[in-house]
Structures are given as C-alpha cells and as structure tokens.
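In the design runs reported in the main text, the only information available to the sequence generator was the tokenized backbone. The following block is the verbatim input for one such run; it is reproduced so that readers can re-run the procedure and compare outputs position by position.
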C-alpha cells in the first residue's frame, strides 16, 4: 500500500508537471500544437500506466520493477520534452523581440503614412491652385484669341485702307507732277525741295522700322537725298535768297517734330516758331521777293493746318479713351459699393470699407470732371487757331494768285496736293506701325504665356511625382497635356499671325505694283499747253498757251525748225509714249479746222498731208461744212446742215494702239483710228484752215476735261 501510495503520488506529481507545461504553452504567443499532442499522448500513456499499477497490485514486486523501467523511460521522454519546451521558450523570446522590432517598424510606417497623407493634402492643395492657375491661363488664352480675332479684323481693314490710300496717293502724285511740270523757276524748285524733304523723312522712318533687308530702302533714300542735294544746288544758282529759303523750309520741317505733352506748351512752341518764320519771310529780298514771300506763307500755313488737324484728332481720341477708362473704373467702384451695402444688411460691419470706396469714387468723379473740362478747353483752343489759320491760308492764296497771275493758282494747287500727299503717307505709316505694334504685343504676350507654361510644367512635374506615389496623377497629367495643347495652339497662332503679317506686307507691295500698272489702264486727264515754238506765225496764243486765234497779219516770231510755216497749226508742249491720255478741244464758232494727234517726227514745213501714213491722225471740219475723219480713206462723220460739235474729246490709248474722237456735248463716240504706230512721241495737234483772221474764233485746249463717261 505504501508503495502504491508513493506511485500514485509520483504519478500525480507528473500530472501536475504536465498540466503546468500545457498551461504555459497555451499562454504563449506562438503555440506549437504538435508538441501539445505529444504531451497529451504521454499523458494518456501515464494514465495507462496508472491503470496497470492499479490492476497489478497483486504482483507488486514485478509490477514495480516494470513500472520503474517505464517510469525511467517516461522520465527520459519528459526530459526530452522539457528540452523541447526550453527550445520553444527561446524561440518565443526571439519571436517577442522580432514582434517588438516589427512594432517599431509599424510605428515608423504609420509615421511615414501620416507624412505621405500630409504630402497628398499639400499636393491636392497645390493641384487646386494649379487648376486655378490653369483656369486663369485658359481665360488669358481666350482673351488673347479675342485680341487675335480683333487683329484679323483690323488687318482686313488695313488692307482696304492701304489700298485706298495707295490709290489716292498715286492719283495725287500724278496730279502734282503734272502741275509742277508747268511751273518754272524758283517756285518749282521750292516745291520740289519741300516734296523731297517729305519723301526723305518717310523713307528714314521706313528704314528705322524695317527689321529685314534694308538695302532697297537705303538705295531709295540715297537717291532722294541726291535729288535734294541737286535741287538745293540748283536753287542756289537761281536765287540769291536760296539760303534763307532753305532755312525757312528747315523751320517748317522742325515744327512737325514738336510733340509736347500739354496743349498750352505745344501752342507756345508753335507760336515761337511762327514768329521766327515771320521774321525770316519778311527778310526775303531780291527779284520776285513778294511772290516768294506769298508762296512760302502758303506753304507754312498749309503745313500748320495739317499739324493742327492731327493734333486735334490725337487729343480728341486720347481724351475719349482716358475718360472711358475712368468712367468704367467709376462704374466698377459703384458696383462694389452696392454689393457691400447689400451684404452689410444694416449691420455697419463693412462701413469703413464702403466709406473708403465712396471716397475713391468721389475722387474719380472729380478727375473725370477735370479731364473733361481740360480736353474741352484744349480742343476749343486748337479749333480757334485752326479756324484762324484756314482764314489766313485763304487770304494768302488770293494774294499769291494776284501777285503771280500766270502760276499763282497752279502753285497754290500744287502746295495743297503736296500737303494731301504728305497726310496720306502719314496715315499709311500709322496703319502699318499700329499693326506692327499689335503683332509685337501679341508676341510678347505669347512669350509670357510660354514662360508661365514652363513654370506650370515644373509644378506639374512635382505634383505628378507626389500623385504618382499616391496613385492619383491622372488629373495633373491631363491638365499638363491641356496646357501643352494650349501652348502649341498659341504658337501656331503666332506663326499664323507672323505669316499673315508677312502676307500683308507682300500685298502692300503688290498694291504698289498694281498702282503702277493701273496707271497704264486709267484715263489720264491732260490739259495741254501750246508750244509757242511750233505755232504758225499768224497764230496768236493766250497767256496760258491754251488758246490760239488766227490773225490777219503775221507776228514777229523767231524762225525755228519746229515751227509750222504753211499750215496754220501748232503742237502741244508735252508729248506722250504710254498710258491713256485724254484732252478736249473747244471749236465753238470755227468754220474750218483739223485736230487730233501728230508724231514728233511728222512733217511741219511745207504743205501738210493729214494722213496716218504721214504720222497725222486727225478729223477735219471742211469749208463745205462736212466733218470727216482722214484715214486710208475719208470717213464722213456728219453731213451738211447737222449740228456741229462744240467740244471734241481726244483719247490716245497706247495699250490698244488707238486714237478715238468724241462729241463731248452729246457724249457720243465719233471715230477711232486703229493700229496706231509711231517710233516717236505723239503730241496733241490742232490747226485752223480759215482764209482770214477776221471774225475767226479761237481753238482752245480745255482747262477742265472730264472723261468719266467714256467707257473702256
């Protein structure tokens, strides 16, 4: 019994040890279930051993020996299990350290995630700002596109304006050259010098503005400067007052450069130069000094009137724009005040802000009133001076015409044409400069947009990196691509505008070439003057050389080879070899005449044979009262007893090789010579075939021909 009790006690002890190990294993962080099963197996085996002990109490000795052996084996197994448990404990400790390390890593990762979340929030904020910036860029691009559209419209208007200005300039220059050709002496040189100064100033401006090849412009400028030098030398040879005249022209030229900010200062400087001009004009002396004084006075008055008109236009435009800007700003202030009052709702929280805006609005109202009064005052002063100068010009023109009855009216007209041509050049230059300035401004804006796009691209790249880590960069990429697209479009627009501007300049060049070609297609009105060296000695010429009247007795005229000696005829001073030239001849009361065209090399001595073979293309009113055209055969144009033309128009068309005659009174075509050929110039021609000068009426080159009714 004692042995059994001890055995049971030992077994119970082992049970307790096993139970303790099981509890320890169950409380660990990492349970090894295979070991637990082994332990359970061993527990069962111990239980079986206990049963054997209980059943074998009768043979205690033998059984004890067997049990001791088994217990020894079991103890060995338990020691093995304990060693395994110790190993497991060591593993648990290692795992615990590993878990502690992982906990630190988790905290680090959590911190990193927090930082990433902060970066994402900043990225989102930056993306919002970027979106706003992109929106601003889109709005700026929209404004820029509107500017481009407006520029396209201005370009079209400029094309039309330049074409119109070029046509007007060509017509005026043609008339000016025609008029100045009939003026002789010092007046002609003064007009030529003044015109050359204007053209040189225009070319100098064109050279300064041209950014490309300037060779052609510089050559033209050098040619004009050489012409000016020759004209001034010629003036010095012909007039003792040439130095004073050149000084007067220089002062008039200097006056055009005055560009004062205030109107009062501008008028003061103009008045000072006017006094200097008056002194120098009055100091002119020598032959025809009074005529020259009157002419210079007309030139300087015409020039000042143009300056005053341009100044008046400039002040009116600038004051209108400034007033509009300030009134828009005032309206904006009033709108802001109304919005604040509505938001305030009587709480007076925004009272200070409202008061500040009201003060600013009041200041703007005062500025607008002052600006309006000042502009009205300046405009009134300019209009008053302009009216006075226009009255002075009218008086000076009348004085010039009274002093120089032969050329006075023509000189006044030439000065007026010269001034109109100058104004057209200024208008064309202004149009070109405005387009160039707008193109430069557009290019500058595009460069700024490109710079902003570069900055945006850099920010986008930063945001894209942050968004890529968070998996959210799609929107940024889209925005960046959109900006790239806008930039490409803007670059294309700039290239397009540059090409259009280049095309516009080419069109202007084409228009200038077309204007030259158009000169050959247009009908040029001619006011012929008779060449006294060709007129028969029995022909009396008027002072303006437009009329010739048959005399009964010959005049004492020099014998020259160019003069008709038998035919009672004369040629005009000017001949032609190109274009379409038209003039009219009055034959009121004439009983017999020949008129038309003669070649410069046509026979003038002896009897004249009026026939194209002999280089005369004429129609004749015979003594038998028949009007005939003399070609290869005679063609009757009207019979006896019918109404005779009182004025006959002659159209010399080199392009078609035709000479046509018109009854001006009936506006009817009479006859055309075809296939007109001549190796020399062709001149207006007329002759009378009456027997005596008694009662003979003059043949007259009309001073005011009109050809608009003639169809091509």
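Verbatim output:
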């Amino acid at each position: 019994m004692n042995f059994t009790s001890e055995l049971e006690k030992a077994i119970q002890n082992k049970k307790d040890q096993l139970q303790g190990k099981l509890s320890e294993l169950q409380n660990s962080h990492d349970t090894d279930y295979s070991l637990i099963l082994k332990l359970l197996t061993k527990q069962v085996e111990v239980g079986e051993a206990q049963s054997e002990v209980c059943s074998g109490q009768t043979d205690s000795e033998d059984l004890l020996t067997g049990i001791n052996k088994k217990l020894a084996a079991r103890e060995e197994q338990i020691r093995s299990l304990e060693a395994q448990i110790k190993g497991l404990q060591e593993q648990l400790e290692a795992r615990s350290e590993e878990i502690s390390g992982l906990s630190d890593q988790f905290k680090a990762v959590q911190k990193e995630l927090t930082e990433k979340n902060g970066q994402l929030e900043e990225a989102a904020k930056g993306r919002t700002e970027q979106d706003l910036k992109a929106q601003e860029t889109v709005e700026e691009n929209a404004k820029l596109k509107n500017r481009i559209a407006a520029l396209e419209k201005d370009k079209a208007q400029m094309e039309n304006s330049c074409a119109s200005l070029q046509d007007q300039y060509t017509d005026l220059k043609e008339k000016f050259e025609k008029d100045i050709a009939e003026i002789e002496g010092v007046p002609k040189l003064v007009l030529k010098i003044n015109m050359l100064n204007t053209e040189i100033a225009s070319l100098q401006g064109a050279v300064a503005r041209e950014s490309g090849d300037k060779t052609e412009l510089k050559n033209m400028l050098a040619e004009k400067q050489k012409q000016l030098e020759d004209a001034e030398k010629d003036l010095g040879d012909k007039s003792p007052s040439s130095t004073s005249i050149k000084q007067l022209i220089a002062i008039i030229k200097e006056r055009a450069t005055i560009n004062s900010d205030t109107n009062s200062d501008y008028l003061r400087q103009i008045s000072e130069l006017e006094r200097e001009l008056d002194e120098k004009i009055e100091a002119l002396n020598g032959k025809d000094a009074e005529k020259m004084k009157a002419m210079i006075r007309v030139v300087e008055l015409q020039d000042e009137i143009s300056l005053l008109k341009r100044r008046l236009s400039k002040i009116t435009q600038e004051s209108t724009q400034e007033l509009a800007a300030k009134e828009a700003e005032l309206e904006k202030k009033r709108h802001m005040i109304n919005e604040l009052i509505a938001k305030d709702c009587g709480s007076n929280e925004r009272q200070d802000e409202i008061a500040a805006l009201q003060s600013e609005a009041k200041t703007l109202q005062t500025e607008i009133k002052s600006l309006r009064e000042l502009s009205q005052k300046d405009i009134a002063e300019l209009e008053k001076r302009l009216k006075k100068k226009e009255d002075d010009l009218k008086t000076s023109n009348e004085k010039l015409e009274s002093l120089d009855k032969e050329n006075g009216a023509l000189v006044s007209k030439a000065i007026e044409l010269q001034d109109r041509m100058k104004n057209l050049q200024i208008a064309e230059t202004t149009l070109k400069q405005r387009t160039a300035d707008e193109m430069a401004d557009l290019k500058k804006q595009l460069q700024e947009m490109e710079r902003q796009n570069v900055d945006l691209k850099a920010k986008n790249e930063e945001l894209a990196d942050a968004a890529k880590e968070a998996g959210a960069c799609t929107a940024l990429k889209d925005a960046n691509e959109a900006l790239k697209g806008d930039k490409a479009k803007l670059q294309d627009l700039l290239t397009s505008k540059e090409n259009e501007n280049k095309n516009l300049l080419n069109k202007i060049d084409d228009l200038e070439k077309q204007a030259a070609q158009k000169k050959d297609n247009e009908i040029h009105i001619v006011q012929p003057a008779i060449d006294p060296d060709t007129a028969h000695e029995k022909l009396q010429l008027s002072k303006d050389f437009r009329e010739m009247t048959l005399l009964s007795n010959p005049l004492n005229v020099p014998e020259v080879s160019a003069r008709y000696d038998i035919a009672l005829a004369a040629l005009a001073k000017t001949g032609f070899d190109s274009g379409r030239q038209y003039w009219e001849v009055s034959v009121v009361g004439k009983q017999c005449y020949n008129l038309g065209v003669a070649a410069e090399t046509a026979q003038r001595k002896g009897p004249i044979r009026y026939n194209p073979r002999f280089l005369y293309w004429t129609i004749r009113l015979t003594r038998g009262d028949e009007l005939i055209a003399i070609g290869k055969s005679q063609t009757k144009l009207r019979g006896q007893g019918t109404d005779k033309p009182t004025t006959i128009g002659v159209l010399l068309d080199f392009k078609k090789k035709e000479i046509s005659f018109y009854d001006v009174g009936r506006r009817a075509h009479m006859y055309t010579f075809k296939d007109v050929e001549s190796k020399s110039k062709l001149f207006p021609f007329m002759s009378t075939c009456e027997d005596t000068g008694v009662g003979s009426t003059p043949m007259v080159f009309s001073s005011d021909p009109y050809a608009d009714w003639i169809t091509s």
